[in-house]
Amino acid sequence: MNEMTKPQAAPAQPAAAKLLDRAFRLTERGTSVGREMMAGATTFAAMAYIIAVNPAIMSNAGMDRADLVSATALAAIFGSVVMGLWANLPLAVAPAMGSNIIFTYVIVKQMGMPWQGALAMVAFTGVLFLILSLSKLREKVAKDVPEALKIGIQAAVGTLIVFIALRGAGFVIQNPSTYIAMGSLRSPPVLLTLFGLLLTPVLVARRVPAALILSIVILTLIGFFVPGANGKMVTSMPSAILSWPRWPTSTFMALDVGYLFSHFIVALPLLFYFLCAEFFSTLGTLIGVTGAANLRKPDGSIPNATAAFATDATASIVGPLLRTSVVTAYIESITGVQAGGRTGLTSLTVAGFFCLALFLWPIFVIIPPQATAPALVLVGVLMMQGLARIDMTDIVNAVPIVLTLLVTVLTNNLINGMALGTLSYIGLEVSVGRRSQIPAMVWGLGAVFVAYAIVIAQIF
């Protein structure tokens, strides 16, 4: 009887659970294996749209869309695994929105650079970012680039994303009188896009889980019944539901480094854009995610920041080898943090879901632009939120931002916007007697843009 009334000892923790606890410091950060896996599933649902959107955008550069689905997933798997194991942060990594737009529509289609040379440029930027991440130059860059220029560039890219998405879906068309106009409301694909533009923000505002990917799924399914061009439906039937993963053999490691160095002056402003976009995007994501997870140190610093930056940089070197653009940490990781994610195990779970997505590539390649455009519009809107941090009553701040944004969209050229925004910032600071406050990096950037304009004027 006494034997039966003795308190039972708690069951021993499985060896695997103990190993994960020690490796990821689960107990120390107040989480568990189950919670981390749920957080990873939540993050993946919030960012899974990239598997459809990135191939849809980059295939316009002349690359095979099915290969790009695999490349997107493989880049996300590599980046998320390294982030989880090295930095031990709940950050998912995947090809960056914005950079893929610039890669396709600015570098390849507008400037005429072959995609092999453009990939070499992205990889070279990753090398520079890795050097920057492992040195103290990281802090200097973060400090020296004025907030007005950073936010102006980010908002300009967001606006360009919106314009290109609507144009690709046929919602915005050319017009001989007004240059651009809205597509005809008698066109079923335009009506489908319009429905998506109304539906998607409602889903996001209502905080529906996986709102963007849900929007893409709904619009893709409706597209099976919406007539498009040539008597076909907007959405085509997939060749299969599941298939073995497709390795991007046709373009794996197809970088043209020689083209990059033979056209280095033309590529220099773009290198600066990718470097800044990668650096400040990662910095902002790190600050946001670690703050939401209460992971910052008492002095406010970010834990394992060097490892996180170096992971982004390394992934941006591997991404072009797989044939995709810049790879970065995703702000959507905050959704996983809100679900309880606190460690790198969340990132590993995200990588696991991307592994499963490799088998679903026949579905991703049939998603039409009318289904992805509303999601891209929301991404663009989110990229403009930094405007709220700027005092737009100060003309020294307002003019560079507005010029960067409007000139980028109206000329469909990010470099034009960046150049005028930077040069106007220099001119305004000098005019109000603050010449000494202009960082040397900004002076150098201004000189680069002037040289770039001279070179382009000779070429075109």
TrEMBL record:
InterPro entries from the UniProt entry? Azg-like, NCS2
> Which family, according to UniProt?
Belongs to the nucleobase:cation symporter-2 (NCS2) (TC 2.A.40) family. Azg-like subfamily.
Q: Report the superkingdom from the record.
A: Bacteria
Q: Which UniProt keywords apply?
A: Membrane, Transmembrane, Transmembrane helix, Transport
Q: What topology does the record note for this protein and the membrane?
A: Multi-pass membrane protein
This chain's protein is named NCS2 family permease
Where are the membrane-spanning stretches? 37-57, 69-93, 113-134, 155-173, 185-204, 211-229, 257-276, 348-367, 373-390, 402-428, 440-459
Cell location: Endomembrane system
Q: Which classification does the entry list for the species? A: Bacteria, Pseudomonadati, Pseudomonadota, Alphaproteobacteria, Hyphomicrobiales
